Amino acid sequence: MAHIVGPAVVKYACTCGLLKPISTLYFCRYCCQLRCGFCVCHEVDSHFCGKCCENLPSSEARLKKNRCGNCYICPSCQQELSTRIGSKGPANPEDPKSAPKKMYYLSCLYCRWSSRDVGMPDQSAATGGWPDRDNVHANRLQEIIEMYRAVVLAEKQQKEKDKKKQRGKYLSYTDRTGVTAAALRKRIGLPADIQHSLLKGKPKEPEPALAKEEVEDLPEELLTKPINLMEVTTIDQRLLQPDLQPTTVDMLFPVHKQLSIKRSLRCRSCEHNVSKPEYNPNSVKFKIQLFTYYHVPEIRIVTVEPLRAGRSSELIIKFTNPTQHQTTITFLPLDLSSEVIEDSYKKEETAESLLASLNLIEKPPLVSLSSQPSSLLSLSSRQPSITIKPRDIVQEVNADVGIPSSKVILPPRDDAAEYDDSGDTHNIQDDPKLVVWRKSNKAFVKLLVTPKENLELNAEVVVGFTMQHIYTNTISTTVENKEPDKRNHNVRVFLTLGNLVGSE
């Protein structure tokens, strides 16, 4: 029920109040909280081409407009183009034994489009050399970009001047003595302030675009001849080339393949990474992979009896322990308010403030900004990500579930136990009314579900409870305390059991 492509029948509540399946959630082991895609900060690690696997730095990718310079996609069906070999007359016509000259052209293996259809000349080399169409508005676009770049730079310099006027303390020795860089330039004979090359004069404004009063008439062919839709480009084909926007099929030219990215995800609360891939584009592994699927017990629905309003039905769910440590599951009543999570946040803040007041947290020494390198200044000026405060869950629960008083113990995960038919070696005394069957790190648990009496026929039944499990954090071990840290982690779970069949 928690598969990637399956129906989202079992949902876990994120700290922000959204309900997501376990396959789309992340687990921050530093905050010990669940994080969804909105509770993490997305950062681009690298740019690469998905076809040739060429890795490009961000500056070069920006210059190339996030497109690969060697790979092309079909302008008709947006699939990757392949290089085909064609022959063209002998290299030496006078010599009868000379072999024919090899020529290369681009072809699509899906829609059979080729570069020869639009009149592109064949190339003598298999890589590179394909001509690109020039944009007729390239000069005007460049003028507009330069103007706005100068405006942004002027605003940035004005903000820096305003900040210098507001500073009241001396940040360096030169500011205290008055011997500033401007004074030194004046003594040497240089101008006091060196202006940027883009700000030597007022930013040059491009010529404004004026509307024409006289508009060309529509060609008579549109009114007299029938339109052949096979010769007219679609909206997707036009938007693929926004600078040209061809209207007919014979004006379609190959498009450079768009670059792909590898991104890392960072928790918005503690700024730690929850997912970080390898830098190599050929690798599909992760350096950090904190998915909830590997840290929180997974719940799946096994069987459920027909649901009737006001009557108890038997529900069997399966718990799976994905960790290498034994855990204990306790069932608690469901609380839809956000007060529980807010209390945990307040406890963390009070603990940090108490340690800071007792001087148990070492504060970094104060260093002037002038003595710090530029890399440290960029890190210190980085703004913290926007945190999403906990909020109430908007989910209607129209059935009651019987909360058992006993607990369920799940042994650690053992990959070899999946192929072992000798039986379990764990001697666990289970409640026979609660645990129906167990094997290895899995346990089948029986619960009683009672839909509400005022439900209509074919209404969707949703139940919920709070699952408390023991999470063993092996990362937080220190030199003084070598034992792993164990915490009680509460997860609110919602189960969609199906439609109501009746009341009798």
Summarize the structure.
With 504 residues, this protein is of the alpha+beta class. It has eight helices and 22 strands. The protein is 17% helix and 28% strand.
List the helices and strands and how they pair.
Elements: E1 10-13, E2 19-20, E3 26-28, E4 33-35, E5 40-48, E6 55-56, H1 58-63, E7 67-73, E8 82-90, E9 100-107, H2 138-166, H3 173-177, H4 181-188, H5 221-224, H6 235-240, E10 255-258, E11 260-267, E12 273-277, E13 286-289, E14 298-304, E15 313-320, E16 327-332, H7 339-357, H8 374-380, E17 399-401, E18 408-410, E19 435-439, E20 442-451, E21 460-473, E22 485-499
Antiparallel strand pairs: 1-2, 1-22, 3-4, 5-6, 5-11, 7-10, 8-9, 11-12, 12-13, 14-15, 15-20, 16-18, 16-21, 17-20, 19-20, 21-22
SS class: alpha+beta
**Proportion in β-strands:** 25-35%
| DSSP helix fraction | 10-25%
**Poorly predicted residue ranges:** 348-382
What kind of oligomer do you see? single chain
Q: Give the end-to-end Cα distance, rounded to a whole number of Å.
A: 28 Å
What count of helical segments does DSSP give?
A: 8
- Rg over C-alpha atoms, rounded to the nearest angstrom: 33 Å
Strand order of the largest sheet: 2-1-22-21-16-18
The mean pLDDT is: 79
Q: What would you say this structure looks like, in words?
A:
The chain has about 500 residues and is an alpha+beta fold. The protein contains 8 helices and 22 strands. The protein has helices spanning about 60-65, 140-165, 175, 180-190, 220-225, 235-240, 340-355, 375-380, and strands spanning about 10-15, 20, 25-30, 35, 40-50, 55, 65-75, 80-90, 100-105, 255-260, 260-265, 275, 285-290, 300-305, 315-320, 325-330, 400, 410, 435-440, 440-450, 460-475, 485-500. It has a 6-stranded antiparallel β-sheet with strand order 2-1-22-21-16-18, with no helix packed on it. Strands 6-5-11-12-13 form a 5-stranded antiparallel β-sheet. Strands 14, 15, 17, 19 and 20 form a 5-stranded antiparallel β-sheet that branches. β3 (about 25-30) and β4 form a beta hairpin. The radius of gyration is 33 Å and the shape is extended. The chain starts with 9 loop residues before the first strand and ends in a 5-residue tail after the last strand. Residues about 350-380 have low confidence and may be disordered.
